[in-house]
Design goal:
- By secondary structure, the chain is mainly α.
- Helices cover 63% and strands 0% of the residues.
- It contains six helices and no strands.
- Helix 3 (36-43) packs across helix 4.
- The radius of gyration is 19 Å and the shape is elongated.
- It starts with 10 loop residues before the first helix and ends with a helix.
Length: 92
Amino acid sequence: MARRRAPEISLMECVMPARLVSKTEQLREAMALGDHHAALKIAARFQRLGELRDPIQRGWAALTNRQFYIDIKQDPDQLVTEGIAAIKAYLS
């Protein structure tokens, strides 16, 4: 029985990805796919969001700590919706 050989791959192909993707590109892709969980996770870590910072971070916090926001009488779904709207404003 003949053994299969592994394909020849250079060291640089192993170390470096084929194309570097910026966080903004990842954010655009997540929004295009409708993956709001990933989009809020990515955007909440951006440093320069200006006035959009608070709604995005609150949206991410409400998504990950839903019960806390219910306990303090805030609607987590509304906060997530506001965060998504802020991301759309950021990308436009």
